[in-house]
TrEMBL record:
<dbReference type="InterPro" id="IPR029052">
    <property type="entry name" value="Metallo-depent_PP-like"/>
</dbReference>
<protein>
    <submittedName>
        <fullName>Phosphoesterase</fullName>
    </submittedName>
</protein>
<dbReference type="InterPro" id="IPR004843">
    <property type="entry name" value="Calcineurin-like_PHP"/>
</dbReference>
<feature type="domain" description="Calcineurin-like phosphoesterase">
    <location>
        <begin position="6"/>
        <end position="148"/>
    </location>
</feature>
<dbReference type="Pfam" id="PF00149">
    <property type="entry name" value="Metallophos"/>
</dbReference>
Amino acid sequence: MPATFFISDHHFGHKNIIDFENRPFTDTDEMTVTMIAKWNAAVGKEDKVFHLGDFSFLNKERTKKIVSQLNGYKILILGNHDRGRSRDWWLDAGFDEVSEYPLIYRNFFFLSHEPMYMNKQMPYVNVHGHIHGQKYEGRQYYNVSVEQLDYTPVSFEQIRDSVVVDEEQG
């Protein structure tokens, strides 16, 4: 049975992100090769991946080459660095679906690029990216930025199970 994964903020082709986020790569080529390998080690051909934004700083041809190497059915929720390009641009680059807005997954998980304000009384979880190495406290936020996940997509079950564990502990 196909699995569902989440990740964000690859910033393919963004040289300065290596220094900004202390990424363990010497250059963007090494970063690209490593991140593609880690994606494909976790994600199978039939799996689904929600990419929660800030995918690539490269032109369409180079972005398309990367997307075509990644396993799975790929859904992009546009991040702040993606929004300068149209939905059609990203579809042409190889994403199977593209959303300009947050999505609700399984009636409980809000998928967004930027963290959303979550009132403590709200029983939902916000799966997000954008804040890279930072992390919001509490069971209502799950940061899927690559820096949080060793550059490897995280499965829905891992997110669900960590929320349940947090809830039981807290």
